[in-house]
Structure formats: structure tokens, C-alpha cells
Amino acid sequence: MAIGIDKLDFYAPNFFVSMDDLAVARDTDPNKFKIGIGQSKMAVNPVSQDIISMGVNAAQDILSEDDKENIDMVVVATESGIDHSKAAAIEIHDLLQIQPFARCIEMKEACYSATAAIQLGKDFLSNRPGKKVLVIASDIARYGLNSGGEPTQGAGAIAILLSHNPRIMELNDDSLSYTTNVYDFWRPTSERYPVVDGKLSKDAYIESFNTAWNEYAKRTGHEVKDFESFCFHVPFTKMGEKAFKTILNENVEDSIKNRLMEAYQDSVLLNRDVGNVYTGSLYLSLISLLENHEFNAGEKVCLFSYGSGAVCEIFSGSIVSGYEAELNKEKHSDMLDSREQLSVEEYETFFTRFDNQEFDFERELKGDPYSKVYLSNIEDHIRTYKTEQ
Ligand code: HMG
User: Fold this and answer.
1) What pLDDT shows up at residue 389?
2) Which end of the chain is more exposed for a tag (fewer CB within 10 A), N or C?
């Protein structure tokens, strides 16, 4: 029986900084950020949006009462964890009022873990007809003010509902994982920001993609031309493009190359305006692709998931007839268009307030119609969330 993505949504916080402004403030040519890295804006989260509230805000509009009765597992994928022990999935399960006899866990492996969560969910459902799994990928990408990674920051959450007979994408049984031990990007528990070797991270991403693709192609017999499009983990939009071009070689016809590169541009439109959302980046890109590219039922998408450290996976999904009806394109463009633009000075204040956990509700909550849930207090290390009526 087919198992896959039945519903899909995302939430990005209500504030952003433009790459033009950031480049000027950092005494850099704006084209480096806009063309060289390929980003236009980056989402900035207020203190009141943590990985839990963002995860709930991503899922709240897609879950029906029937879904909540039948979700037997909630998995949160994140590398912005707020507790070494308690899973963020427990709070999310509670805030979404999902039936109590569910398994709730949190998963970690840099930006890759949402894919591990999806594969776990797919296996979990294989002998549970009628049941569903909710996967939340929620992260706040921060490298520090004035750091090399600063233009590749972002924040947001993706909600993915897995079910039998899915309405958006069937997941095929062809996944291939590849693990290599590399210190390209990691987040020691003692550090506020990640430790990054920028150049090594770009090389490791491309090496992982090439090795995994060659093995995937060998094992499955699939060729580039078999896919209507490819979808990548997008730390910044130039990264996936650079990796993709390495396999669009002389063996691939020009017409196919052009079609695939056009589809790639469709797949990064949202990422360009949100920034890196770590675990959710591949799935934000999938939303962007589905909303902006036309598919026929049965056409296949090849997905490349990458998490520094490093683990990657290549797998594919087949488009389901009528998938368009399950998308929320208008809501997403309104959510991004209605964000408040911060000056670089204001963004720096937000950034520092986040580090010091200083709330400013008046400013943070005003005018965010897409946030029904927010973090309202932390006392004795217990987080309290409020729901807007
Ligand atoms: P940098 O060193 O400041 O920039 O940091 P650069 O010198 O590498 O320049 C970037 C590109 O802009 C280059 O193009 C320049 O030529 C070009 P490339 O050589 O790569 O093709 N450029 C210009 N283009 C047009 N006009 C100009 C101009 N000037 C320069 N005037 C870096 C860039 C990405 C390394 C940095 O932002 C960083 O460290 N980011 C964080 C790490 C990262 O995102 N790595 C990506 C791969 S690892 C990954 O995806 C995993 C991750 O998501 C984490 C996880 O898994 O958990 C990060």
C-alpha cells in the first residue's frame, strides 16, 4: 500500500532582514549575498517563536480532528534543541491536542534528521493501516553577528503529515544513505553558535551528493532523465545548484538540463526569502517546487537530504493526482509578504534579545496572523505557551 506525504505546510516568523541592507552594513558587495550565495531575505525570529511554537504554527492549519485521532507518532527533527532530555515533540503533541496514545520523540543529525524521521514514519505505518505520523522539522539557524555564515541564517518550521494513500506524494522504496565522518559544521553543547569550516562544508556537501548519487544510480538503475525534477537541501540557493550541475554533464541532453534547471529555480523561491531552516530546508524547497512547478500524476521527484557531520540520503517520491488541491500557495505568499522588514540595527537587537531571552511581546506579536501559538514565559526552566484566540 502506498505511503507518503498527505499534507504539508510551513511557518516562518513575522520578521526579516534584506540581503541588500545586510551587505551594506557588513561593507560587502550585495551581489555576493544575492548572486554568489543566492539569497534575498532572511527570516528573523523573535524570542517568542521557539522551535516548539514554530512547529505548532506550521501544523495547526492542516490537521483535522480525524488526523489528531489517528496520529500515532510525532517526531520533531531539530538541531536547535532546547533540552537534552525532554523531546520537543511532547509539547507539540500537547499544544496540537493529538490523541494521548502516541509515541513522541526528537531526532538529531544536523539538517538530515527530518528525512530520518520521514523514513522512520514510513516504516512505522507499513503495518498500521489507517494510522498517521506527524513529522515536524523546526530550526533557528544562527551563526552570530558579523560571522561568515550570517547571510545564510533563517528560521522556520515545516509540518509533514504521513499517511496511507497520501494525497501529495507517494514515497518510493529506493532510498540510499551515505555517511562520512567530517567536521564541516557542528554545534558543541558548550557553544552558542555552530563551529563552521565554510569551504569544507561546501566541498563535503558536493562530495556527499556525488558519492550518493553514483551509488543510488547504480543500485536503482535510475538516470537523471527519469526525474521531472530534483529537490535539494538548501542552506543557500547557490549550494544545491552547484551540486546539481556536477551531474548535469555531457551525458544529459540540453533540453533535459534546461527543464531540470528551470524546476530547480522553482524549488528555491521560498528558500531564497526565508533562509536556511536547517532540518526543514529540503522540505521548504519541496513546498516551493510543488507550488511553482506543474506536475503530471506519477512524475517523479528526486530528493537529496544533507546534514553536516555528515549523513545524506537520496530518495524519490511520485506525484499524486490532484496534489494541487492540498497546497496552500496563497497563504504562503501572504505570510511572507506580510512580514515586517527590520533594519540591520533592529535585527541586531532581536538577535541579542534572543541570546538573553528578553521578551518584548508588544513588538513581537503585533500583526502576525499566522502565529496562533507563542512562547510566553520561561520560569524554573519550564516553558509556557499561549494560544491566540
Ligand atoms: P564566504 O567565505 O563569505 O563566501 O562564505 P565565499 O567567498 O565562499 O563567496 C560565496 C560565493 O559568492 C562564491 O561563489 C563567490 O565567488 C561569490 P562560489 O565560488 O561558491 O561559486 N561572490 C560573488 N558573486 C557575485 N558578486 C560578487 C561576489 N563576491 C563573491 N561581488 C559560506 C560563504 C557559504 C561558506 C558561508 O556563508 C558559510 O559558512 N555558511 C554556513 C555554512 C553553509 O551553509 N554551508 C553549506 C554546506 S553545509 C550544509 O548545507 C549543512 C548546513 O545546512 C548545516 C547542517 O547540516 O546542519 C549548513
Assistant:
1) 60
2) C
Which residue, chain included where needed, has cell 545548484? 241
Q: Is the pLDDT of residue 185 over 80?
A: yes
Distance 81 CA to ligand 1 centre (A): 25
Is the pTM here over 0.85, yes or no?
yes
Domain termination residue (choose one: 291, 323, 355)? 323
Whose grid coordinates read 506550521? 58
Domain that holds residue 338: 3-170+326-387
Mutate to test the pocket of ligand 1, among 185, 196, 239, 244 (most ligand atoms within 8 A of CB): 185
Residues 165 and 18 in one domain: yes
Query: pLDDT exceeding 70 applies to what percent of the chain?
Result: 99
The span from the CA of 204 to the CA of 47, in Å, is 33
Indicate whether 215 pLDDT > 80.
yes
Which residue among 282, 301, 323 closes a domain?
A: 323
CATH of the domain at 258: 3.40.47.10
Closest-lying ligand 1 atom to the alpha carbon of residue 185: 54
Ligand 1 atom closest to the Cα of residue 242 is 21
Whether 179 and 290 map to the same domain: the answer is yes
Average pLDDT of the residues in 344-353: 95
Q: What is the mean pLDDT of residues 178-193?
A: 96
CA 366 vs CA 210, 338, 339, 360, 362: distances in Å: 46, 12, 11, 10, 6
